[in-house]
Amino acid sequence: MTTEPIVEQDRAGELASSATDEQLIAMLVDRARSDGLKLTGEGGLLQKLTKRVLESALEGEITDHVGYDKHDPEGRGSGNSRNGHRAKTVLTDVGPVEVRVPRDVAGTFEPQIVRKRQRRLTGVDELVLSLSARGLTHGEIAAHLAEVYGTEVSKQTISTITDKVIEGMAEWQNRPLDPVYPVVFIDAVNVKIRDGQVANRPIYLALAVTVDGHRDILGMWAGDGGEGAKHWLHVLTELKNRGVADVLMLVCDGLKGLPQAVEAVWPRTIVQTCVVHLLRNSFRYAARQDWDKIARALKPVYTAATEDAATERFMEFAEAWGRKYPAIVKLWSDAWAEFVPFLAFDVEIRKVICSTNAIESVNARIRKAVRARGHFPNEQAALKCVYLALMSLDPTGAGRRRWTMRWKAPLNAFQIAFEGRLTPAAH
Question: According to its UniProt entry, what is the function of this protein (predicted)?
């Protein structure tokens, strides 16, 4: 028996339904215009349609609950029946809407689309979370809702909405991780927290590249002071306890003592210092008029074909600039063991591990979100803000696609350079 006639009938039905929907929409819009009715805003068409849809859904729910249609004689003597309505105003994506919620005599009706004591539909909560993730303060969100939707939402209500993410944040922070990651980038962002007095506190971040080329933010942790290797040891140990058995390369900004912390957790991991941070730190010891000259003199060092060639170029730099800026020479000498590892790999790997740019872009988004707050009342409020910013990094998925394409070639090079270590079975 062929299914082609059935498929054709289904397609014809879909086309007819679509045409009917378009005609209905056009008719509603034309009627609204002829009656002088606005499409949006207070008393607009969208508010009226939302009211009708919600009330229709509620009537369907009460019918299912009592077991008979309105005015149906079968309902007589059924033991429960409709008992009028009560008015209730709910905040929706199109503004405040007053709906008539049906009641039953027994008082057992529990509406689902607009629950008891519910004053906001889920879309409003999502809007508040989205605005908060983009750096708006609670006062700015309240002002936005009042201006655009014509409704008053208190700062406390907005705080209650954003507090709902805390449970999800804890679950995300403790989720199991992959057994192996090709690269992990680590860094910290300072935020101001009022704990007795306002002070800078670091929020530690770890961002990984998966074996499939996806970006995975492994977690965030609040520190209690300066960015130290001791706290990073705690962070890396937690990652290992969550399932990370191996990391091929870990890229950082050259924190003293970090290589030893990494070795204690993952003995085979290669620690790579960010070249961009080395350059920036070099400029701190030089006069502004010499920055360009120093940058040109150091470029042959970090673009050398081999470690030996880099050593030769660095000796030339030290000879030319060591007398004037001995601190720069010492800076590079002290970081040399963590600077040179990327020189052992081909260009595909070099260009993605020579800096912490991958995590710096995430940090920029976080800084934008926290800057509007000024400071936070406590550690949890700071973490909540950072978490919301992280969850809103790529709403369209376009960044994920670009990231995957960018890492396709480097991951192939990693497969060759670290043969056997990228397969979960090896761990």
Answer: Required for the transposition of the insertion element.
